[in-house]
Design brief:
Low-confidence stretches: 359-365
Structural class: mainly alpha
CATH architecture of one domain: Up-down Bundle
Order of helices and strands: HHHHHHHHHHHHHHHHHH
Helix content: 55-70%
Bound molecules: protoporphyrin IX containing FE
Oligomer: single chain
CATH class of one domain: Mainly Alpha
CATH topology of one domain: Methane Monooxygenase Hydroxylase, Chain G, domain 1
Shape: globular
Length: 365
């Protein structure tokens, strides 16, 4: 490594002069400066800096998935970066507590000066959502156009262009689809899986039918629940049924990708699936942390505004609460548990299959 030729100075390196003079309370322009407005500005700025770091990691991860082949050393780097995103998100979720030290009345002393600025205009937050896979078609109805109409033309064009790029969700889907299917040397994994699930569901049914202590209507309800689960299992292995459930929003991943993700999850302890499983777990955690942030932000907004509308014109708390339920991305990975079997019931993988599956998945786009 080459030695530096000019001495580095802490404040210059971090451009502190720029950073520490970038807090200009609006209230000071109209009346006595509201004390808490500095806190409000700094908290938002810190969030935006961390969003920048998350996007930096996400961009690097997406670049790795753009390759037709993702090698094991690349997967190690990807998982490392995703874990960094998760650690930052945990910090962001805790940071809500700092803004909550401001009382609703202190907020009222400067809030009206901020109209019509709003979190809707955080381009980096929208980049994060879109980059992870929350494109317009998957947002709650109000959200499909709401934030676009609050942005200037330059930001609108930028984000609309981003919607046309493949998101992390789509790249992961392609990567999962490239996994070789287990139809090698006359061993059909999915046939054996189906037999194992049929046995499991039949056992569940027999157990419910055999319980003496429950009322008849309860028994019927439980049997119906088992039937519903059986339908989902059946759809998993039937292209037409799967497509129907994809259309009604039950599944978002393609059937092929879903089966690969399930296979990785079922055999997570196999060394070759360790990193892919960690990767899927990271995506689940990122989605969960984003949802926790949405929820904490929505609760904080209710404390600050009650049922008042937001400066961006949404219904405020009510709108934000709905995004926690609907603006989710990796729900397929959350729902994967529906299709898991106890380890003891899993078909054992023949030796040649274990050998045949590489540590990473190569293939065609
Ligand atoms: C007193 C504190 C805060 C209040 C009262 C508040 C209020 C709101 C409201 C009402 C909305 C909905 C859009 C609208 O109608 O304006 C919103 C959206 C948003 N806020 Fe905040 N907010 C606060 C603090 C923060 C902080 C600290 C951040 C950190 C970056 C933030 C980021 C966002 C983002 C990204 C959105 C868009 C969410 C989405 O579209 O799903 N807010 N905020």
């Amino acid at each position: 490594m080459q030695k530096n030729t000019t001495p580095c100075y802490y404040g210059d390196y971090l451009q502190l002069e720029k950073l520490l003079t970038a807090q200009a309370p609006e209230s000071a322009k109209y009346a006595a400066e509201a004390h808490d407005e500095t806190l409000f500005i700094i908290v938002h700025q810190v969030y935006e800096l961390w969003f920048k770091q998350i996007l930096h990691e996400l961009k690097a991860v997406m670049a790795e998935f753009a390759h037709a082949e993702v090698k094991d050393e690349q997967l190690t780097g990807i998982v490392h970066k995703l874990k960094r995103i998760i650690t930052i998100q945990k910090l962001l979720n805790t940071q809500i507590g700092v803004i909550e030290t401001m009382t609703p009345q202190d907020f009222m002393s400067f809030r009206d000066y901020l109209v019509p600025a709003s979190g809707f205009q955080s381009v980096q937050f929208k980049m994060l959502e879109i980059g992870l896979g929350l494109k317009s078609g998957f947002r709650i109805d109000f959200d499909k156009n709401s934030f676009y109409s609050r942005l200037n033309v330059k930001d609108q064009d930028f984000l609309k262009h981003l919607e046309d790029e493949p998101s992390l969700f789509e790249r992961i889907e392609k990567w999962l689809e490239r996994m070789p299917f287990l139809q090698l040397n006359n061993f059909s994994f999915w046939q054996m899986y189906q037999q194992a699930t049929d046995t499991m569901l039949a056992d569940d049914k027999a157990t419910v039918q055999g319980i003496e202590q429950i009322a008849e209507h309860e028994r019927e309800m439980q049997l119906k629940e088992i039937e519903r689960t059986a339908e989902k299992f059946a759809a998993l292995l039937d292209a037409d049924k799967y497509q129907q459930l994809q259309q009604d929003g039950t599944f978002r991943l393609s059937q092929k990708a879903m089966l690969s993700a399930l296979f990785i999850t079922l055999y997570q302890e196999e060394p070759m699936f360790n990193l892919p499983f960690q990767l899927l777990t990271c995506l689940t955690e990122i989605d969960e942390n984003l949802t926790i942030w949405r929820y904490k932000h929505a609760m904080m907004v209710q404390r600050m505004l009650g049922t008042k509308i937001g400066t961006g014109g949404s219904s405020g708390h009510d709108y934000l609460k709905r995004t926690t339920e609907k603006n989710r991305i990796y729900t397929d990975l959350f729902n994967m548990a529906t299709f898991l079997l106890p380890k003891s019931d899993l078909p054992a993988l023949p030796k040649e299959i274990k050998r045949g599956l590489g540590f990473y998945f190569a293939g065609q786009e």
